[in-house]
Records
---
Amino acid sequence: MTKRIAGNGPVMGELNRRTMLKGMGGLGIAAAAGGFPQGAFASESLNYMCWEGYNAPSILEPFQKRNDATVSIDLITDSAGGFAKLAAGAYREFDLVSSDSPWIQRMGPAGFCRFIDDNDFAKQYSDFYPQFRAPFEPLQFDGKATGLPTRWGWVGPTVNTKFDKLETWSSYAPVFDAAYKDKICLLDWGDWPIMPLVLYAGINPYEELDQAALDEVRTVLRAAFKNTRAIVGDLAVAQKGLLDGSFRALIGGGTYCTSSLRLKGHDYIQSIVPDPKDGLKQGIIWMEATGLIDNGKDSKVAADFLKYIVSPAVAKELAITDATCNLVPNQKAEALFSDAEKSALQMDYMWTAWDNSQFHTVAPNIDDMLAIWQEELAAR
Amino acid sequence: MKIERKSWTDPVLIGSVTPLAAVMLFFFVIPLVMTTVLTFQTTQYYRLAWTWDLTIWTEIFSKPHYWTIMLRTVSMALICVVLSVLIAYPCAYALATRLKTYSTQIQILIIFAFLTDAVLKTFGWILVLDNNGVLNWLLAKVGFPPETLNLLYTPTATMIGMLYNLAVYPMFTIYLSLMRIDRDLILASYDAGASRLRTFFEVTLPLSKPGLYSGAVLVFVLSLGAFLEPRVLGGGTSPMASELIRQSFETRVNWPLGAALTIVLIVIGALTLAAFGFFTLRRKATKGGAA
């Protein structure tokens, strides 16, 4: 999955010319003032690979101060790429990773997961909604937990209700309706736009697919491309099109591209989950999780950070960021949200969406489906 | 001028060539070799497997969609070269001949635009080309119906973005060539009775060809790698080679496939340039022989 957010600024641990010069200036001033004060150097440093939002200073700084630690960030823009980097050997350099849950779970079979003992995290689990408590199956490997859930939401049509009724999107049928020609936007976020369309075709993409099913995937993608105006990777561009009506629906984004707009007052933008079709749930639940990496250090500070990142106050910070707003699994955090924030997050709808959705995992035939996507796009 | 032939064992020659050779070796040849080596591997469960087989190459040569995208990329690049030169030449000519007084100021403005981040410029075009953007607003002001042009998320928008970002290269190379033309040759042409048009086609244009060719090559090479414009302005529905390579590396996490497509793109680019060079040289030789 690749989520693109516009306007990423410099992040901690990221060097550029300006920060370098600033740093050198600071060093000069410190040296001129008679050296560095005691304790200026943190006793432990953590290397943390994560999505945008997890790196907010309001999240990292209190932890760094309290634990006398430095957290260096490596931002990822796609989960698969982040996993590939770790698998290629970078896992030795990292202590923690926050990514999409299938990729956290995959660290188990890949051999670089530092499994967590659910008993050590009993307090954290007890704060979670019952749906996320131990043993939380989507993050289990071989009976052991690979990480803790941190953010979640659902993938369904994102609709501007100024232009369309929500009932119109109780199914993905409009994606294929000629009346919506050049009005559909697919989010270019890896497999996210593929899965809903495949579900609409009556195929469960999270099961092993035979050739007939893959042929059906090809047919449905080809049909969807006919009405597609754009395949957009940038969240801001997709949101702009949705607001001005040039896109009537965003497919493959869901709450990830809705909540921040709703928080800014565009409460007529909604992400819904279509009704089940022929017994097949049409929605998809996505989830981000944070896991510890087995880099040989067995760092206690890393484990503390994992407890910290799922704590109610931090979960609230993580839920509401500048770029996106997302649900968190921490039930206690719910009391910290304002009514406006709860409305932005569509909290009144979340369990309806949950009940009508598949859980997003790594599909067995994902590479076949991505190849079909490429082929049909080339042939368009 | 007498050209002095030097032996390859000449220490002075070796000394002067070594730094460049080392740079080329470390930053071009070795990465290229590593990329080529990668194409003979496979990925299993998102991890590289050192298999040394032809799986990836078999896939590339058996799936036509890779070649469809490559062909689209080369076509777009060639169109971009032609349009860039057509836009750049008059601008460079005016700069070198008619706007000499303001040429420094104009060059500074062009350089400013050139140095502005391509991401910013490309996203800026969305505001211009959108259905309810600046262009349609202007057209509506002069009496056209609302949303007359539907340019955004089309190959035309991709081409506009590419031209905007790349036409500046031939503008400068042609300008430099024009500035180097001996003014006496042009005056001699007029003295011999040639019209302005004939003087342009028989004196100015041939003498500015080095700048024109180098600008065209720059635009062609950069167009082959165009990534932002098809993605942002083209709406991703007509992907070019760079997007295909990105998808292979990033979305599919298939590094051998991405590496192989990179090699294919490099080879196609090199072959196109070689063909261009070959025909240009042959034409020159034919002309020389005829003279």
Note: Residues 4-40 of chain A have pLDDT under 50 and may be disordered.
---
Amino acid sequence: MRDAYLVGAGQSDYGAFPEESYRSLFRTAFEAATESVPNGLEPSDIDEAFVGNLGVGGRQLGLSGPAVTEHVGLGGVPCTRVENACAASGFATRQAVQAVKSGMADVVLAGGFEIMSDMSSDATKYWLGVSGETEWERLSGTTFSGVYAQMASVHMERYGTTREQLSQVAVKNHANGAKNPHAQLGFECSLEDAQSAPVVADPLNLYHCCPTSDGAACALIVSEDVVDEYTDDPIRVAGVGAGSDNVGLFQRDSYTGIPASQRAAETAYEMAGIGPDELDFAEVHDCFAIAELLAYEDLGFCETGEAGQLIESGATELGGELPVNTSGGLKSKGHPIGATGAGQVVEAFKQLTGNAGDRQVEKPARGLTHNVGGSGGASVVHIFEREERNSSRNSSGHRPRETEAETEVSAR
Amino acid sequence: MTAITGVGAYAPRFRITADAFEDAWGQFQAAGVNEKAVAAADEDALTMAYEAGTRALEAAAVDPAEIDWLAFASTTPPLAEEDLTARLGAMLEVDETATRHVFAGSTRAGTRALWAGMDALASDATTGLVVAADAPQGDPDDGVDHAAGAGAAAFVLAAEGPAKIVDRSEYAVPYPGTRFRDSGANETQGLGVTQYDRTAFTETIGGAVSGLEAEPDVEAAAIQAPDGKLPYRAAGAAGVGTDEIQAAATVHDLGDLGAASVPVSLASALEDGYGSVLAVSQGSGAGADAFLIESDGDVPTNAALEGDDPLSYAEYLRQRGVVTTGPPSGGGAYVSVPSWRRSIPQRYNLEAGRCPECGALSFPPEGACSSCGALEEYESVQLSGEGSIEAVTTISQGGAPPEFAEQQARSGDYAAAIVALETDDGSEAASIAAMGTDADPDAFSVGDRIETTIRRIYTQEGVTRYGFKVRPAE
């Protein structure tokens, strides 16, 4: 099977933009993505597009994919809208990788967008938690803050995880987001701020919850046959994995882990032929502070039950052993549902190309993105690896490509 | 002959005192009411009827399938049109072929239902269930509202039993304007012509009692109680002393229970073991029903009339929805009424399914087995309504789906849990999401024991959907 490469990625700012439409935000992301391709990429090069969108507000529920790809001039290129809740564009990225690996396309756009801020707060609430199990979970009075709070309640009870550890996630991600010009909540917060915020769903308070956001993000995935046209320093999609599960938390075997994420990570690590120890950074799905802690465990960054100690140790801070959510994460950068997964890929691209500014991880070779739909009904993990061929910059930490290809084959 | 074989009674946990009204208004217009029960935001006459009805069935130790005659009485049915006995019967697991009646429009409705039940048993019914539930409401500055309480009582009827209804009589004569509610209105009102109202009350009560074959000589008298004074004014007309009225009175602690006033007092008197009880209801219009009950003093009773959760007057207005604006408009998540109806066996009766392949329980019983993945027809298993909390949170303002915004505005933060509901023998359980009720959210923690009850879940498109919630186990 052919290899797939990430040659460009870009995003709009995340935030509340009454002057922008979903189309204009998508255009911003699309232009940023094409402009980020080192040797340039023309829209006419694109063979196929996958666009993630939940459709909050119901403004273009049907055909929302073509509605944005035609707007940016992709003129007739087949576009598929992907809906997997908050993991929509993580899965759009996976679809792009599949299209390339299958040989059906050489250049594929994977993107996503969402507008969440242009409605009354009451109307917005009707759209929160719509990806939870509707008949029982929602009608027990929960949106996702409640469902994740239930997970937190069990994690705290079973493993001694503390509110302070939840707050440390917020402090870390805000510290990173303050260094990201695209971030919606790009300010630092103190542990005291994070501890004293109003409660939303006990034990989660406002600082343990991500905001609602407008935004768009795009990534460009190409085949090994054409990658050299676009870059001299290719970033290979080394691993990809995904999983599904029951939509309602009450239907699942575990309340303290997300089996779909565990499955996605296992598949992605196996394909990449690496383990979590070999990652240099990760963008994980921190819609709520507890979600980041669960991700630490589901992705193998620590043992089950030890996520609280991991955040406390500082290992996941910028400059730590494994920086997590250098972009600020969903918490600080923002969470425009359909755009979030592609937006994580944007951060991975920036880090691996050395363009992450003040939040740059030192010479990273590999990064992981982790995008969860709902409370774990869908999850997708990508591992990106910088593959150095022609450049003498950044020469550390990666293996010859031939070896990796063999690993991949043997792993499947 | 008709007899009462089991009694159930229920009052909500919330109480507001006369003092709280006095603080708010500078006066309290319901003489003789010390405090009264207040229905929670997720309660109404139908849920209170379920609470009393299920207790009566339990007390009588009767299989709900044996009930062939069911009556629901209230001046405040949650719908003015739609036969609520269909839902009430399903909640109580009464057979679909049972005869059903709704009685409304008068505070006599509860005893009219009892009357009709006697007639039915004299005809071809074998086991009847009479349920009276009410939560009157008036304008906030009116005496009707100051007195208005909330409560329910239910009686299982059979030809023979420990409490025999030995005589009955009724009487009606026109007295317009004493207590009425216009079509479409929620608030009951009265002209407040003091002496005229008293005359209407005592004349009709006297008329009904004088129709009994013998002068009543009873230990307790359950007299209609629009407030805490009026029943005592009717002592002479009813031929009883004030001590006998006092013996059965619930108005002082629960307030005006409307159509459930005499039924709850009668339930209370039977629970207390009185041997002879006179029960006289009165309804505006005006008319009265009188019954003479002779008990062996040992009627099976399951009454939950206690309550100690105090409300301030502001909380009272919130809880009753007087100062809230209703749910926000919008769309998003949507459960159609037909979808909801399909889940009624689970919402009301906790019907789970057993996987024929691996034997694991699933709730709701649909889709592939969560244990082994088999996609087979489940074998129906009814869960017990008892279990424990597996995961829980307290939803604060802002954390609720908008469907629950009105409820939260009225009743505040609530618990939302995942609970493991157990089979009858407690050896197996199935997990399901459920809202907490009947206690502060702090009362729900991982590992705690819970039991189910039926409450209003939410109202959309004008249709209130009822289903189980959980509360701390008794």
Note: Chain B has two domains: 2-319, 337-472.
---
Amino acid sequence: MIHSQNLKRFALSSLITACLAVISMFLSGAPTQAQLLLTERAAPMQVADAFKLEVRDRDDGTRELTWEIAKGYYLYRDYLAAETDAGTKVPLVSPSGIPKDDPTFGSVEVYYDLVQVDLAAAEGPVTLTYQGCQEDGICYPPVTRTLPALAASAQALASIPADKQPIETEAAKDQGSQLTLSQDGGLIEGLRQRGGVLFVLTGFFAFGLLLAFTPCMFPMYPILAGLLSGQGQKLTARRGITLSSVYVLAMASAFGLLGVAAAWSGQNLQIVLQSPVAIYVAAAVFVILALSMFGLFEIQLPAAWTRRISTVGTSSGGTLGGAAALGFSSALIMGPCVTAPLAGALLYIAGTGDVALGAAALFALGLGQGVPLLVVGALGARALPRAGGWMQGFKLAFGFIFLGMSIWLIGRVSAGPEILALWSALLIGGGIFAGAMDLLPVNAGPVRRLIKTAGVFSLLAGAIMLFGAALGGDDPMRPLDRLRASAGSGEGPEKSVNFVTVVSRQSLEAALSNGAAKPSLIYVTADWCVTCRVIEREVWADASVQAALSQMTVIAADVSDFGPEGQAMLDQLGAVGPPTMIFLNSDGKEPPNTRIVGDTTVKAVLSSTGML
Amino acid sequence: MTRITRREALTGTAAAGLVTMAGFSFWPGQSAAQDQELTVEDVLFDPANPVMGNKDGDVTIVEFFDYQCPYCKANHPILKDVVENDGNVRLVMKDWPIFGAPSILAAQLALGASSLGQYKTASDALMETEGRLSKDLIHDTLALAGLDVSALEKAYEDSREKWDGLMARNSRQATLLGLQGTPAFIIGKTIYPGSMSDEALRDAIAKARA
């Protein structure tokens, strides 16, 4: 602001002196008439004032970085970077900036006013670099700031295996994230936020109650019945309730342990429970149960157990112990069966890593599942069937249901005409056993006629399925699809959704940027994810889903090879594992309540695409 | 001292590294006389730095700049016009690469071109680029301007010490002068931070002459 017309030759060094007041101490001999000359235009601020950085450390070792940017200044998105002492890049998730179309600088993304960036957890101190400019003024050199090490981050990282630690990705460094995830944490997180832990537990209890009416739970009834009938004449209502309560509590505890395992193991449990081996074992258990229903052998195992245990302890205590052991083991046997509907819940628990909540939630789920069992126990002797012809029929029906469960389970692992043929055999067998080929006496009652109707229906359906299987069909609900396909317009069931498969964060970013201005679907899948196979067959094959997705960029994020690359991708998506579907609108933002985790239906997918 | 340390950090690791390599010391604590002499010579008349405009001009404009700094580039045609129309101004473009590796590469090749008497061609071509620079874009731009990129690379390599020393001095000067970023002009003996209109430039030249 001050002008001097006649600066002498040495004035420049005086000027330096003025700029650096500290140095001037060392230049005690320098002239004192130094004058700093600046133009009349607003001088650029000190960089620390232009970009005020606030760092908030989170408990999990991540950090929230907030820059308050002075008016007339901006920060470059591309020049945000962070690295550890060892020089490893630390991933940053930055929002998309405002495109600044500068003819001399091209289109770059910049931030005005305020920007908030997420910094991943890292070990040791992190050096942060950022750079910005004064609008139409000057551009500052990069600013570096070292953030001290966080105690929490060291702990958080120590509990993650080395191959799952955040890795450096070019995307994180070069362009940050192109997608904005919805801040709602899904149904369960929503429950927790709205009503706290109690709400989550109630939700799981209700979910368990729903699961109690799936065929997965059916084997529990005969097992419990065996336990109760083993009590013989002594069975009172009170005793029935006590026994079934113990049984249900033990079952719920087993589920609770499942929750603990899920929370501890992360995605691994999900992989194990969905592995073909576990599913074949469960299918085999159902076959054995079915054979027992058919009378090949009496499922007297429960009674044998209870007897053995009761000989050890007192009669009463032993029986309770037996009930507990039974409840516990039957829950474990049913585990793989209920995993499919449970996938979402397990993924969530694995994602939170909250052991106590995981255990409590699944315990509540087990209790919910046990409610009908408690009712059976309470009704006790009255509810339990006495020997009789109808009882035999009932057992047969259960046998067929168990065989059906077994085929359904196998079908999740491998689909094909063989499975359809199995269904056909089951239906034909069921029809014959229901008396489809038996002659009805003239005076047969309505019940028998109804049963025969069902039997004939089953027989016909089985025949059609066998025909479909011979044609190479594999969908029990549409066994003759092949016929239609070959005769029809050529739009066969083969047509599926054309996913762009990505396996790393970089390729995901690249795929997203290719589909600019279009809504997108990111489908997290894996070879080992059985539920994903089901989704592929039942959801992606659906014509209405294909129509809805035809206007979208569809990306399959494949995490089959579960390494750091896949983990980085999951982290970016805020997903814990497959199957997860993330829907982004054309701005790259995820609308609330659109995310789908776990097994799903055509309807749910259409509802999510409809919200974009 | 604390201020220096912090500023040094602000100029970035590249600059800091170069300064260390060059071993060129501006550290206060030397005699005041020595400090004065060095600074004046270095800022306005560094013998290594190419000079444009009128080499014998009565006013010197020094610009601390970066080949990727948007305002340096936007300002450059205005600056050239003013220098040319005046006819008696020495123009010293001081490379202060603050936008990372591409900026450093651009500066190296332009300085290499100076050994071959092609500095103006190279510098002008690079200043006229649009968008951010990459290695490929820099090479293509220089080739398109009729320059032999490998010859420029060789020229730079041959006098590497000279050019790295120059850039180290530039960045040291920027630090000591308290420059906050690019562009920063020194016209006569006055510091003008940020881009300047032709009017502001003419005024500043007039003031330097007065």
Note: The longest strand of chain A covers residues 51-57.
